[in-house]
Write a structure and sequence with these properties.
The complex is a heterodimer of chains A (206) and B (79). Chain A is 67% helix and 0% strand. Chain A is mainly alpha-helical and 206 residues long. Chain A has two domains: 83 residues, RNA polymerase sigma factor, region 2, helix turn helix motif (Rna Polymerase Sigma Factor, Chain: A, Orthogonal Bundle); 96 residues, Winged helix-like DNA-binding domain superfamily/Winged helix DNA-binding domain (Arc Repressor Mutant, subunit A, Orthogonal Bundle), CATH 1.10.10. In chain A, helix 1 packs across helix 2, helix 2 crosses helix 8 and helix 7 runs antiparallel to helix 10. The longest helix of chain A is centred in the last third of the chain and has 25 residues. Chain A is globular. By secondary structure, chain B is mainly α. Classes of the chains: A mainly alpha (206), B mainly alpha (79).
């Protein structure tokens, strides 16, 4: 007889912190697995790919050192993101160089979409898969979305992550990334548009 | 009168409810008259909802890289 075990339940932030303070390896592993990629996204958006890993490594060490002082005023994730952002900004100032972030990225040219009078060049039809549930239930499409998300330029990915995935407010996002509100809005719309285009292409060709 | 091009560039602001009342009225007026833009807005809304649902579909991965970093962090507390 085979016994099918359920996966261990996801620990709460408080349990993870308690576990790390008690030196439990599993708590460290779960915390890194949950937040490392988010922290990398933020670091890349501020300082670029070259320094991101190093910044996040330092941010982790600094966070773990002061874990005792983490008072839980914010969520653990917000706290880790803030430490990462501060470390990246400090490094950026020290490097005294403008890190080029969004070069070589193919933007969707609006001339491709609209005619000279500002109307859509092509008829916009309804999608066959018209709910998010139906879209994500399609493995191919779900992979396309994930891959497109991962290939987004660093700043676009960071704004999209913070706004659409983490539910942060725009002022908070501008503060974390050190960008203006209008810039953040443009980055958010570009990121969503790129993913929209990929879903659209799939649905049109399928 | 807004053009389709304007609708596309203002679409996220509209869906995030960041337009002024006047802009929102003009936007809705265009949507009322333009079938293409109505479909586009519906598609973008579905795209945003799909992005927001995406993490729930992804498993948490504890690979060797995660284990190594976790071990390094754990060791750093014992110094």
């Amino acid at each position: 007889m085979s016994i099918k075990a359920d996966p261990p339940p996801l620990k709460t932030e408080a349990e993870l912190i308690k576990g790390m303070l008690a030196g439990e390896s599993s708590a460290f592993e779960m915390t890194v697995a949950l937040y490392h990629n988010r922290m990398l996204t933020i670091a890349r958006a501020i300082i670029g790919e070259a320094f991101a890993e190093e910044i996040v490594q330092d941010a982790w060490l600094s966070a773990i050192r002061s874990l005792n002082e983490f008072a839980g005023r914010s969520s653990l994730q917000t706290w880790l993101i803030q430490i990462t952002a501060n470390a990246a900004k400090t490094r950026l100032r020290r490097e005294k160089r403008q890190v080029s972030l969004d070069e070589n990225w193919q933007q969707i040219e609006s001339d491709d979409l609209f005619d000279a009078s500002g109307h859509w060049r092509e008829h916009i039809s309804e999608w066959d898969l018209e709910t998010p549930e139906a879209i994500l239930a399609n493995d191919q499409l779900s992979d396309i979305i994930r891959q497109t998300f991962e290939k987004l330029p660093a700043q676009q990915q960071a704004v999209l992550t913070l706004y659409d995935l983490e539910g942060e407010t725009m002022p908070q996002i501008c503060n974390i990334l050190g960008i203006s509100a209008s810039n953040a809005r443009v980055l958010l719309h570009r990121a969503r548009s790129v993913i929209h285009q990929q879903i659209h292409q799939y649905q049109e060709n399928d | 009168m807004l053009k389709c091009r304007d609708i596309e560039s203002m679409a996220s602001e509209y869906l995030d409810k960041n337009l002024s009342l006047r802009q929102r009225m003009a936007f809705k007026m265009h949507l009322f008259l333009c079938h293409n833009c109505r479909n586009y807005i519906r598609q973008l809304r579905t795209t945003i909802e799909s992005i927001r649902l995406m993490p729930q579909k992804q498993p948490i991965v504890i690979d060797q890289h995660v284990k190594n970093l976790a071990q390094q962090l754990k060791d750093s507390t014992q110094k």
